[in-house]
Fold this sequence. Notes:
There is one protein chain. Helix content is 19%, strand content 33%. With 811 residues, the protein is α+β, with helices and mostly antiparallel strands. The strands form 14 sheets. The chain has a six-stranded antiparallel beta sheet, covered by helices on one side. Helix 4 runs parallel beside helix 5 and helix 6 (394-409) packs parallel to helix 9 (444-458). The protein is globular.
Amino acid sequence: MKDVTQLSEGWxxxxxxxxxxxAVPGCVHTDLLAAQVIPDPFIGRNEAEIAWVGRQxxxxxxxxxxHGRHERAELVFEGLDTAAExxxxxxxxxxxxxxxxxxxxxxxxxxxxxxxxxSSAYEEADRVRALTGERPNVxxxxxxxxxxxxxxxxxxxxxxxxxxxxxxxxxxxxWSTARxxxxxxxxxxxxxxxxxxxxxRVSRTESxxxxxxSLRATxxxxxxxxxxxxxxxxxxxxxxxxxxxxxxLEVPEAAxxxxxxxxxxxxxxxxxxxxxxxxxxxxxxxxxxxxxxxxIDCSGDEHGTGFTFVVNGVRIFARGVNWIPDDVLPSRxxxxxxxxxxxxxxxxxxxxxxxxxxxxxxxxxxxxxCDELGLMVWQDFLFACxxxxxxxxxxxxxxxxxxxxxxxxxxxxxxVLWNGNNENxxxxxxxxxxxxxxxxxxxxxxxxxxxxxxVAELDPTRPYTAGSPWSGSWDHHPNAPRHGTHHSWEVxxxxxxxxxxxxxxxxxxxxxxxxPPALATLRRALPGEELAPDSPGMLHHQKADDGNxxxxxxxxxHFALPEGDFDRWHYLAQVVQARAVAAGIEHWRAxxxxxxxxxxxxxxxxxxxxxxxxxxxxxxxxxLYHELRRVYADRLLALVxxxxxxxxxxxxxxxxxxxxxxTLRRVGADGTVLREAVVEVEAAPRSVARPALPAEVVPAxxxxxxxxxxxxxxxxxxxxxxxxxxxxxxxPHYDVRLETRAGSGTVDVxxxxxSLVRDLLLRADRLGPAATADRGLIxxxxxxxxxxxxxxxxxxxxxxxxxxxxxxGPA
Length: 811
């Protein structure tokens, strides 16, 4: 049997004549931080102080020793970041230039000092640029010339921290006769039968070139949701054509894997063993699989060209978020951290996570959790916001990288889409690239040629799209709202969020609004700084072009911009972010099935920063997170403004009918109920009902003294006819009391309103850095009570709770 040894111990990093302890997996920055050579780049403006690290050459050294009776020994690097030479006993084993590939070197019979020498990523990029010529991009960094995590060179939400190192595990494999070189499970469903077509390739030693090999393959159900309790197996001689073979297994009455909210997530263990002539095991391969079908319906209709996920024959409105690397030093992201962040996504009623093309192909632990939680994964190939040369040496690297990762990830049932790039097809058309390129390659051959061919050859069980956004062909503008996927960035960059309601794209793959992180996050990241929107540290941790200007303009359209009151500015910025994203989702959900999904930019952050994220760089939840949980719930009650007044949308994405009585109240600013009506509504499964509003409950257009409140089954929607600064909000008046849940560590903050209280927010981090609240923005009418559960609060005090509450309207 193959013997595998993880090489995680005994590494040292050379620095200024010294050998520092090194962690593998890890990177230069994590090792220098551990040795206290550099300051934390996340704190203050330290990012600029450590920029030199990314421009140095670095070497990792250890001693390679191995013994045993195996015929072959191979050194396997799961991830080298990025331009490296591997040297054993003074002899070069080879060079690498791709962070996103596995690299394997033959070390049979060889031991001695092992060195992995990394060139500066800038030096490698300059070398490639000299060979291929200049290409445009949206940032002044050379990320398009090197197959490396693009956002390590900085982004409009990320720091410039250019890493180097062994960022994924290193292992020594020793084997005899043969080992698996590649196993591709093509998982399909035919009626009620699940089918696994295993395509296997092996590597052999020279002495085993003519040896007869066999395979044992089994599929066994796991988990309570799997109806299949038996075992389907194959064992016997396989007809290898050269070093390749095909085995097919069929699972009767296979339990289907579903996205969350549509059914269960039964997973099956697929085990494959390579056997020698005498039946002795030589190598094993194991994955969890799920049976499901997935396609994208891109058919045309009277509205344009659709883009609808269809899983197991069911059409889905995708409730998505964009995912970026959860740390700019990705080797620090553990399986536990993946589980925490993705569980937060599921708890916010998210069912699709798009892995964005300027990051990485995430660790298998990421996709394992998505498999378990029913989170569909849209996986970008790693191209973003730039023209990419198609010449060598990049072309070969791109092809090898794509093959590696398609094969690695194709077993995961959560993976539902391969996407060629982020915004590059759009960029070619709209970002003034065409003239300076003057006919040079820019990536189109990847997105419309190499990548779809690789997916068709290696993973034909799931769809591919050339890019995001993409209208499906050059017959339409790449970002045409009526065709395919659309990115909505005029809103935020130049327009108020009300403009989301001006169109109904077929699928909104990116849109979002910025807000600062939690105050406790800012206090940790900017120690000692007197915080202000334009204080030095705040500006350094704001990477977007004119980011603060856009934040301020977004606030000013709706509220008086606070002068000299950072606390209120911070609150209003977070309120506007939550309202903006909710406005888009409510409108687009109300237009299902014309619009078939929204993917918010973005779920998470890679450091403490003002950004579009719902979860900040320290893992704290912004108000946007709680708003996502509301607007992505199976059942959503919304009052959507239109040119003809508010529209009541009763959106039911659940599998059962929603029969409810909607209570509608026209309410004065002083909290007086002026008129009331009840509307009986039934929304069929996966549908939207839009009942007419009784005229008497609708406030007059432009009224600054009346609002409409809709309530049903514990859900609330509010319509204010004017922007908040034109509404006659009273000074908020409410009582606060605390109730401790015995033995639970939870304290309920109970708020009783005596006036209209609009968008009340308990900012839990004001109660303590570890404190969290279970609710976001709340609107109360006089006499109503809200209960907010707080955990992680060490020093419970009612005055502190009152001080942590803030709402819209006069202070």
